[in-house]
Input
Amino acid sequence: MRILAISQYGWPEPHPALNVMEEMAKRGHHVLAVTGMPNYPMGDLYKGYEKNKVVKEHHSGIHIVHVPIVPRKHNPVHRLLNYHSYPVNAKKEILKLSDDFDVVFANQSSPVMMVEPAIAYAKKNHKKVVMYCMDLWPASLCVGGIKKNSALYKYYWKRSKRVYSNVDVILVTSRMFKDYFVEEFGIPRDKIVYLPQYAAAEYIDIPKADKKDTIDFVFAGNVGKAQNLGVVLRAAKIIQDEYSDNQRRILFHIVGDGQELDSLKAYAQENQINNVIFHGRKPLKDMPYYYALADAMLVSMLPDPVVSLTLPAKIQSYMAARKPIIACANGEICNVINDAECGFCAKADDELGLVNAVYKFLNDPNREQFEINSAKYYEQYFSVEKLMDQLEEILKESCNS
Output
C-alpha cells in the first residue's frame, strides 16, 4: 500500500501519532507523513527547525514532510493560532501531491482540524480516510474551561461534526468513545472500530530494579491539566505526615514535562512535600530505568465526564512493563484496571481514596500477581502484532472498497 498519513504531531516530538505508521512501514508499505514543525509539548520550535519552512526528512521507514505552523507557546492566543495554522499549511502541501496514494490515514488528537487536509486530499482524488481518534472534540474543550453554550464551543461543534461525518472509518482508542460519536453526532456505530494503542518496545518486560530501601510510585507522561497531578501531591503530603516505616520510605516520582509542572513544583515547595521527586522529561531510551524503579505506576485524571472516557497510552506502557497500576480516575481507566486485576483505582480527585489505594497495595500479600496480570492483559488485548494486523486489514479494505 501507498499510505498518506496526516498528523499535526510526529517525530521528533514525543507523541505517539505516527507510531502505527512506523509499524506499517516495517511491514513493507510506503508511508508519506505530513506533520507540523516540531514544537510539542512545550510550544517552542525545536533546534534546527527555527526557520519554520517546509522540511523533508526520513525516519523509521517513513518519509516525513514538516509544514510551517505557529508554535503553541504558552498562551491561549498562540494555541489557537497553532490549531489553525497546521490544517491551512498542510492542505497547501498535500494538494500538490500525486493521486497515487491508496488510502489516507489521519491521526486525530487536538485539534480536530488536523484531519481536514486528509479529507481534502481524499475528496480530490476519490480515496478513503481512516481516522484514528485519540481525543474527543469539541468535548475536550470543556476541560480547558470552554462552556458548552458559548459561541466558540458551538463553532467547533459544527467543525467537528463536519470532520467526523466526512471520514470513512473512525478508529477509537477507548471503548467508551463509541457512545460519544453515536449520541453526539449520529455517527453510524458500524463506522467506528475499537483499536487501542500499544506500548513502545522499550517498555516490554522491563526488569525489576536492584534491591532498594524505598517504596517507589512512578507517574510517567505529560504533566498537563487533564492529568490532575495535584491530587498525587496532596496524597503524598498525607502519606508523608502519617506513614511511619523506619526501614522503607515511600516516594512519588513524576517523570515528564508540561504546562502544569512549574505550578506543581511551587505547590510542593510551599507545602513542604518532600516525598515527591520531579525528574522532568526524559528521552525514551532512559524510561526503562524509571519503570524498573517503580513498585507500581501511577495514573491520575480530572473528574471530568469527557476525560473519563479516555484510555491514555501510559496504561498500555505500564502493562507492557509488567507493572501494577494505582489510579485516581473515573471511567475507562478503572474499567481496564479492574478487568485486568492489576491494581487499585480511587475516584478521580480523591486524595484520601488515593492514599487508601496506596495502603491497600502495600498491604496486599499477592502484589506479584498484579505484575503477572498486567503482562497477561497486555498480551491479550494490546500487543503490537494483534493491533497492527487489525489496522493493516482495515487500511487494505479501505483501498479496495
About this structure: The chain has 13 helices and 14 strands. The first helix runs from residue 19 to 26.
